[in-house]
Amino acid sequence: MRDLVVTQNITVDGVIEAGDWFGPADGGPELLEALRKQMARADGLLTGRVTFEQLRGYWPTQTDDPSGIASYLNKVQKDVVSSTLQDPGWTPTTILRGVDDVRGLKDTAGGAIVCTGSIDLTHQLITAGLVDEYRLFVYPTVVATGRRLFPDGSPQSLRLHTSTSFPSGVTLLIYRHR
C-alpha cells in the first residue's frame, strides 16, 4: 500500500489558504533542497481540479527552471480528482472521479502519493482517514484568518516524525498517525 502524504505550506496559526501570505522563494536554498528530496521519494501527485489547472497553466511552459520542479511535474504521474474535468491536457495524468478512487490508488504499487494545495480535496482525504503523513512547511507568519488545514470535527492523533528548521525561519514538520 502506498502512503498518501499531504504537503502544505502553512502559517503558524494553521492557515493554508488566505490571500497572498506565501512566496515559494521565501524559504531559501535549503528549503528548495528539502523539496527536491521529497520529490525524489514520491512518484505520484494528487490534486483537485483547481490546483491541477493552476499547475498546468504554469509549469509546462517553464523551460529554464533551475529548481527542478518543472521537470518533476512534467514527468510525474498526476492524478486529479474532478467530476467535471474531461481532458487533462498534461501527460501523464489520470482523472479520478472521487475519494473512493483515491482509496484504490493507494492500493497500487509504487512510491508515495503527494497531495498539495487542493484544500477541498485535502479536507475530504482527512475526513475519509486516507492521509498517512503530513509534511508541513510552517512559515513564521500569522494571518489570523483563512482556511485551515484540518476541517472542523476531524480530530487527529499524530506523532512528530522529524523536524527541520531553515535559516529563513521556515520549519518543516513531518507528522505520521500514531
TrEMBL record:
Ranges in coiled-coil conformation: none
Domain of life: Bacteria
InterPro entries recorded: DHFR-like_dom_sf, RibDG_C
Domain spans labelled Bacterial bifunctional deaminase-reductase C-terminal: 4-171
A GO biological-process term: riboflavin biosynthetic process
Pfam families in the cross-refs: RibD_C
Annotated GO MF terms: 5-amino-6-(5-phosphoribosylamino)uracil reductase activity
SUPFAM superfamilies, sorted: Dihydrofolate reductase-like
Name of this chain's protein: Dihydrofolate reductase
Species of provenance: Kribbella jejuensis
Lineage, uppermost ranks: Bacteria, Bacillati, Actinomycetota, Actinomycetes, Propionibacteriales
